[in-house]
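Reply to dn_fold:

You asked what the input looked like. This is it:
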Amino acid sequence: MKRILLLGGVTEALAIARTLGPEHLYSLAGVGRVPTDLTCQVRVGGYGGAEGLAQFIRDEGIDLLLDATHPYAAQISQNAATAAQVTGITCWALRRPAWQPQPGDDWREVGDWAELIESLKPFRRPLFTLGREPLQHLHEIPPEQFWTLRALDVYPGNERCEIIGARGPFLLEDERELFERRQIDVLISKNSGSTATEPKLDVARERGVPVIVLRRPELPAVDREFGSVTDVLTALIPEPPQNL
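and this is what came back:
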């Protein structure tokens, strides 16, 4: 059987990892909780770019590289595709479908931080759900704005920003309470496509709150793309031999 290196990041990656035996590897960058109840091997940390990953693939005798990282982890996905090509192994990717705007949504797509800040000018009480990215910009908050940031862990804020440490899945009622208590007038989000974090979009729609959406990056071509865990697992299970 092929030896699999699973690059994790999204929730679905853990579901795949739970099906893998001890000969396979589940690799995490190190952000967030590391599972301790898996049968497969778990590796935490980077590789040193595409070249380092390629060398790891050779050293460990990896036959199949499965990229199940976050849709916005473009550099990791590029490194994976490059390393697979250099080493001549197969590369698959779980590419979670993007959210699509629904009737009543007011989505405003931006490509980078500069566009985001420009789009944010008319608002006063933004809710950022971009992870840690906004932390380096806390000193840039205009005096008329108060930011609420939600990330996996709690970080220091300042007089113009409060940071909430929370992990999904998020419940609809809790999101409603957050929007009401903070008087959120604009939501900033990646288009992650995750059902665990989708309730914030439902609340924004209910309240008529605009959503500034950070555009998904372009991801490299791979040998096969999958849209769900079920599709991945089906592909991993070998077909039974045909009766002759």
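The first strand starts at residue 4 and ends at 7.
Hope that clears it up.
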